[in-house]
Fold:
Amino acid sequence: MSRYDNDDDRCEHQRSQLNNLRCAPIRLALLRNLENRRQQATHERDARRSTANAMTATDEGGIDLPHDGMERPPLDLVLEKRSDRDPVLIVRDQVLVESSQAEVAQRLLRDQYQPSGRIIGGSVTRLVRVSTSPLSVPEAVFKLRENDVQASANHVAMLGGTDKSGATPEPTEHPLEYGRTSSHGTRVVVIDTGLDRGARERDDGWLDGVNAVDAEDIDLLDVVNAQGVVHADGLLDLGAGHGTFVAGIVRQVAPDADIRVLRALDTDGVGSEETIAEAIGRAVPLFEETDGRGVLNLSLGMETLDGQEPVALRLALDQLPPDVLVVAAAGNAASGIRLWPAASKRVIAVGSHCGDNDLTPSSWSNHGSWIDFSARGERIVSTFVAGEETPGTGAEDDPYDPDPDMFELPNPYALWTGTSFSTPQVTGRLANLLAERPDLTRAGAQRHLQDEGRFSADYGYRLSIL
Structure:
């Protein structure tokens, strides 16, 4: 029997993994695992920096502090409690405010304020750092908002094991023939983990013309080990290949789309609100090149401390040309809690159905009145990356696969489940509509897509695309 013959079992295993996220203790254990591993990575980084500084003090030439291919150091994450629901991960000691209110924030926070001066994505957001003593991040945010300063914690989106991916990818064969006829379709920008550097080496044609915007948008695949330490170990990290998989789905639905990929999430599938907002800012000129038209795909999301829309994401989305359609994943926690940016009024939120004859909603998909569409999120096949998965222990708090797979050259494909993968189907369909009807407005394109679906309370218009 071929190892590709057990797709039914593999898909059922992925459903089971996602359904487990409905269990609060399992979800909390996974969050704590990620928090602990990230803190280890931060401690290791600080130790290396101390060593480098010590050597610099004794050696006039000094040494370079390696980042193993990462232009940003690993995020220092901390779990922050909420009164009525699971805690959320935020970046330690960071608050986001509008740059126009930075001076007011500085006055209010006094000694706790250390401005970074970073302007995010050309928008009007600045990062403000606060110390944990005497103010915690929630206390700092509350104090700023009391004084009419728009502020929020630097929230975190995470793919591996918790919010968007949940299930690990499985190797499979691709059942479809390549059918691209043109390279002049709608501009689609995918913000994710980046694009596989091996995409151009494929000989199946599926990723021809799909481009990472810059060198920094290549998916590095292997930067951290299973303990979270910044050290390449020759194995695929938790988020490796996610962006490549998403781009391949867009290509299947919209073969002629002009697809560009930006990286905002690291190889573990983790990204801060700051880095995502910055990537959205980088997408603005890409859409300006196409007269302000196109589709932005965000197969990522985050819960917030107070359930409100994150400041940096809102401001970044406001910078986009008004006719750009933004599509985002609703999440995989079988919850009605709003996930951002999907829940934003500016964004089309996508949940999942099973893909059966009656389009039954997936048991693990998030739901609620804020969901606009649902598409099949189970048994999705797309382009992937070559390499071997990091082995897991099988423990409930271990997001790695206890039965790790090898994805082989030249054309690796994967089977994957999640709203991350129903989302690019809607993106691709909207790209087709814009190509077919250049006169369509953003609202008009969404109405046309609604006409193709069947409305269901809490899951929006259910579409049959792939």
